[in-house]
Amino acid sequence: MSQINKNTFAITTPLYYVNDVPHIGSAYTTIAADALARFYRLRGKSVLLITGTDEHGQKIERTAAKLGRSPQVHCDMIVEKFAELWSILNIQYDRFSRTTTPNHEAIVKEFFQRVWEQDDIYLSQQQGWYCVSCEEFKEKRDLLEDNFCPIHTNQKAEWRDEENYFFRLSKYQKQLEELYQEHPDFIQPASRRHEVLNFVSQGLQDFSISRVNLDWGFPVPVDPSHTLYVWFDALLAYITALLNAEDEPNLNNALKDWWPINLHLIGKDILRFHAIYWPAMLMAAKLPIPAQVFGHGFLTKDGKKMGKTLGNVIDPFALVEKYGSDAVRYYFLKEIEFGQDGDFQEVRFINILNADLANDLGNLLNRTLNMVHKYCQGQLNAVSLPVNDSVLSEIGKDLGNLVNNAYENLAFDQACESVLTLVRTCNKYIDDQAPWSLYKQGQIETVSQILYSVLESVRLSAYLLAPIIPNISTAIYQQLGYDLDFNTVSAITPNIANHSNWGVLPADQVLGKAQPVFQRLEQITV
Ligand code: MSP
To answer: Does ligand 1 have an atom closer than 6 angstroms to the CB of 235?
Structure first.
């Protein structure tokens, strides 16, 4: 396989279809990708987070026609909505790859030529059932009654019988099996890997990579009467994204700095394209294969599949406007095991945010800072610090490693849970130690030690949660007397390289005033 550079990390979200404004599914993958990108930036890596849009194909062409717009005008309008959502969700992406750019056309042409020269593309007859919403041929046995698509249950698959160009996927059966064997981490989590292995073991069939009767897309370089299939075109936009602004658009330039990608983050419905078609296409072009494809689960609302016809979609814009970006990011990453399906319930959403962020974490900081001001004149006692023998330092010493491992394994829920264990222990520790009584007994030094341990725990928690809740973590750090912002992380990384350790808060730190870092949310009635 490829040489992966240890100091860089290139991660992609899927390139989203622009048939409609962004939905919560797109937001989910992008939030996770952003949290991971922020985590690696904090660890000092050079990170490239790639997102973008997949703009060609029948689905987009038909949507634009229905709305009376030209496809390009339609794409430009929807792209703005994606940019807006990423901005309000506090997503720090480095590249936004659009499949309708001239750069992309150049990359697609060159790539097609390479594969063509390998004799891996040929003309043949395609017959089958096509779901326009999936932009995919379906097996008859996988369709529901009356040929409805199992994923887009309000959409009938259409019968196609036409000449198409085909990619010789079958030729790569053995090479793909070797890839999965030699790199067991290539497909994650394990359940998705099994799914792919199972599918591949049934024997791979060549797939068609062109369409007739479709204008919205790139012409097939060797036969302009055909249009290139949207998936063949879209996957390559991960490569186009790697071009620098000043580069001539060719494969050499695109691949020189960041290829191969470290991680393609996707939803489970597009696993085959990424874990089977994509590596085979790259093998045909004699290019290195990305290190990992991670397929996350699907979100439901109140236990039901979301859909426009069901009228129960979650509008990500409305959610962020109502609750703020940190709250939305936290809920989806903490509440759902990444890789599994997960549910959204507004009542639960509010309960969790109030319990974890307003009560356990926010109140802890608030009451501790107030005690420092009340009992210690706002200044901890430098002589007696640091404190290394409390129940908090015991947890705190190992927490950095534990949480770092969780992030590396995309176990965001475990990262949050581990931090919360420390936070909850702090609350209990204060109640048990009762610094207010110790103060009355004149034990000022002990009070100072207790409060230091708690504030150091809060600092460590804020640091470790910063990839997920950067605004709250920044507010906590600022109240703890640090002049830094987790949203400008590349500028601050060298100064906080050791901050995942215990005992970092300087004993003589000048602390700020206590202010709520997360306002309690009003419970709704259902
Ligand atoms: N355009 C293709 C991807 C091409 S990548 C080269 C595409 N786009 S999409 O907009 O339809 O889907 C984007 C992502 O949203 C997919 O990863 C999909 O899994 C995810 N989701 C769509 N609905 C979802 C849920 N209900 N829950 C979670 N994610 C889901 O596919």
So the answer is: yes
Which amino acid type is present at position 486?
F
Ligand 1 atom index nearest CA of 297: 28
Helix (H) or strand (E) holding 228: strand 223-228
What distance in Å separates the CA atoms of residue 474 and residue 462, rounded to the nearest whole number?
8
Question: What's the pTM?
Answer: 0.95
Q: What is the pLDDT of residue 1?
A: 44
Is residue 295 in contact with ligand 1, taking CB distance under 6 Å? no
Q: Is the CB of 343 under 6 A from ligand 1?
A: no
**With a 6 A CB cut-off, is 86 part of the ligand 1 pocket?**
no
> Position of tokens 């998705």?
192
Token digits of residue 193: 């890997």
Centroid of ligand 1 to alpha carbon of 233 (angstroms) = 16
CA separation for the pair 369, 512 (Å, rounded): 8
Of 334, 314, 372, 344, the closest CA to residue 472 belongs to 334
- pLDDT at residue 305, rounded to an integer: 86
Q: What is the pLDDT of residue 2?
A: 46
* Length of the chain as a residue count: 526
Q: Give, for 240, the enclosing helix (H) or strand (E).
A: helix 230-240
Asked whether the beta carbons of 274 and 303 are under 8 A apart, the reply is no
Q: How far is the CA of 191 from the centre of ligand 1 (A)?
A: 19
The stretches in the chain having pLDDT less than 70 are 1-5, 309, 381-388, 490-491, 526
Q: What is the CA radius of gyration of the chain?
A: 26
Distances (CA, A) of 62 to 48, 56, 211, 220, 235: 33, 11, 15, 21, 21
Residue 379 has a pLDDT of 84
Max Cα–Cα distance, the chain, nearest Å: 89
pLDDT at res. 526: 66
> Could you give the dihedral angle defined by the CA atoms of residues 174, 177, 178 and 182, in that order, rounded to the nearest 10 degrees?
180
- Both tokens assigned to 162: 């036409």
Nearest alpha carbon, ligand 1 atom 17 = 267
CA of 304 to the centre of ligand 1 (A): 18
Return the H-helix or E-strand segment holding 62. Answer: helix 58-66
- 263/294 Cα distance (integer angstroms): 7
Is the CB of residue 17 below 6 angstroms from any atom belonging to ligand 1? yes
> For residue 96, what are its two tokens?
């936004």
In the 8-state DSSP scheme, what is residue 380?
A: -
Q: How far is CA 243 from CA 41, 119, 224, in A?
A: 21, 27, 26
| pLDDT given at position 436 | 96
| Closest residue by Cα to residue 129 from 139, 142, 117 | 139
Confidence at residue 384, expressed as pLDDT on a 0 to 100 scale: 58
